[in-house]
Amino acid sequence: MKKLLLIASIAVAGITVNAQETRFGVKAGYSLSTIKVDEAQDDLEARSTDPSHTFYIGGLVEHKFGDKFGVQGEVLYSPLGGKEDYNVSEGQLYFREKSKLTFGTLLIPVSAKYFITENMSVSLGASFGVILSAKQKTVIDAGLGLPGLDIEGDDDVDIKNDVNTLNIAPFLGAEYMLENGLFFDARYNYGISDLSKSDGKVTNSFLQVGVGFKFGGN
């Protein structure tokens, strides 16, 4: 009887160990990044925003607890940001300022995963972004509508001192992995941190769609 209990205990322990799996991997993909300016601004009607098309790249570690649940941590780099267009005119007078904001960001996403099937999972978590650099490219076009009195120019300036360092973005995502470790994933990150140190709140949200590979191993 004691031998049977010992054998059963060893078998259960073996199942528990096998049910836990840690895998490392790499990933890269496309990001659609947008900025949102506080709606309380008086000149909101003169402003509009457009997304920036950019990329991300980095590595990950995934740990599964049994067949259904797991956690995943990542370290990624992405030049996030967005575009803003300020345009006003009255008669022959006009002023247009087009700005592109680029935040060189180190992303640390942490998520809980639920495996719908062995290959398909959904994730819920948050991305903690550390802004390493911040630049603003501005193009100005202004004038009185008269020959010789129009102004055109562009400028590229470092705005790191005007930007808060931390960008927290909760996200919801999905992933599909093939048997050989190749996977495809997508997630939407909703920025909640105010990135502006001056008046007017600025947030950064981004969609990520990419591909990666996980190396097997317990």
Automatic annotation (TrEMBL):
- Look up keyword Signal and say if it applies: yes
Q: Where is the signal peptide?
A: 1-19
The family database entries (InterPro entries) matched by this protein are listed as: Beta-barrel_OMP_2, OMP/PagP_B-barrel
Q: Which UniProt keywords apply?
A: Signal
Entry protein name = PorT family protein
Keyword check for Signal: yes
Which residue ranges does the record assign to the Outer membrane protein beta-barrel domain?
Answer: 19-195
